[in-house]
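Students often ask what a holo structure prediction actually looks like on paper. The answer is less mysterious than it sounds. You provide the chain, you provide the ligand, and the output is a string of discrete structure tokens encoding the 3D arrangement of the protein together with adenosine-5'-triphosphate.
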Amino acid sequence: MSASWIITLTDVHFTFATGRKVLNGVNLSLGVGEKIALLGANGAGKSSLLHCVMGLAPIQQGDISIFGRACQTENDFRTIRGRVGLLFQDSDDQLFCPTVLEDVMFGPLNLGHSRDEAREIALQVLSDLGLGGFGDRITYQLSGGEKRLVALATVLAMSPEVLLLDEPTNGLDADVEKRLIAILQSLPQSMLIISHDRDFLDQIATRFVRLENGVIVNV
Ligand SMILES: Nc1ncnc2c1ncn2[C@@H]1O[C@H](COP(=O)(O)OP(=O)(O)OP(=O)(O)O)[C@@H](O)[C@H]1O
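The corresponding structure tokens follow.
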């Protein structure tokens, strides 16, 4: 494997316990600094692919290598999860604390930062995302778009080295989407981005691929 690949999937197969097969020999490599747009029809298996990369959906066949390390066991994936930021498609899967500040502090605390450091990081990320003053808001009372941004804040607060973003613009109005585009453009991390918003992807992505019939096709 080349040292310039952050994530490499080789002949990856994934089938749900129900028997629904969604990945049928996926080959895909994410390079340093690359921002790959992952296209595909509803139900093609895009979210499942991200879950496989995080080790949340165990693959039946193939190889996943992250930061040059072959990931097979839960233990392998646990060691890389802190370095890979996954924005779930559904914000409610990401947010589970009573207040916004607690949610955004959760990751840094988990990484070993002190409460003061975690608070400082969380307040900075919230401010960067235009969410200054949101710290004390009750998470479950946020609007869908606000939740989307707070969910992204929880990911960015962990300073991940690579970002897996599942529909980041869902529920965002035009102005907030513009701000998100500027933020993502300014971030140096490699990204794998799922979105049905082609305008958004055109402004972020350096490469486009499509998941079709369980395999990756270049577009
Ligand atoms: N836990 C599960 N058990 C069985 N099938 C599932 C499960 N979760 C998802 N699926 C099915 O697997 C297929 C792939 O789902 P996935 O969410 O990965 O697609 P997607 O490409 O991200 O779709 P979308 O663009 O609509 O978000 C779908 O047909 C979905 O219904």
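The mean pLDDT is 95.
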